[in-house]
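Pilot study result, target chain (153 residues):
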Amino acid sequence: MQALASLVCGLVFGCGLLISGMTQPAKILGFLDILGRWDPTLAFVMAGALAMSGAGYALARRFRGPMFAAQYLWPTRSDIDRPLVTGAVLFGIGWGLVGLCPGPALENLATLSPRVIVFVLAMMAGMGAQAWWQSRAPSASASGEAALTGPDG
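Predicted structure:
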């Protein structure tokens, strides 16, 4: 049942991307071009997404547990560390250069555009490199715990 719920959520997300035009790299690049012909469409999409997710979180908190999982998996960390900043910078660079992020890129695979295929392959290679790097690093839970408690415990 959880897989079906994930599929439905993915389809709703994909339809939202299509309807809002966020699968068009020109729209994203237009939003990022604040000194040129700025396109505010993405700002409205983000505001709508924040409103909907805020309402969703408020509604979910009223229930004892999720419908299709054993427990809620609420975020527990709020610290800003080097991996978070590095990932954000790399994401922003890729987003600014190509005008795609993972969701729209996967949706755009249906176009069979060589540019999109190369982007998705590069994205997958980056994800693989990150997983390999993390496997060589000290335990993520130990470093996360240290980041939350600080050096003095």
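One observation from the pilot: Residues 143-153 have pLDDT under 50 and may be disordered. A full batch analysis is planned for the follow-on phase.
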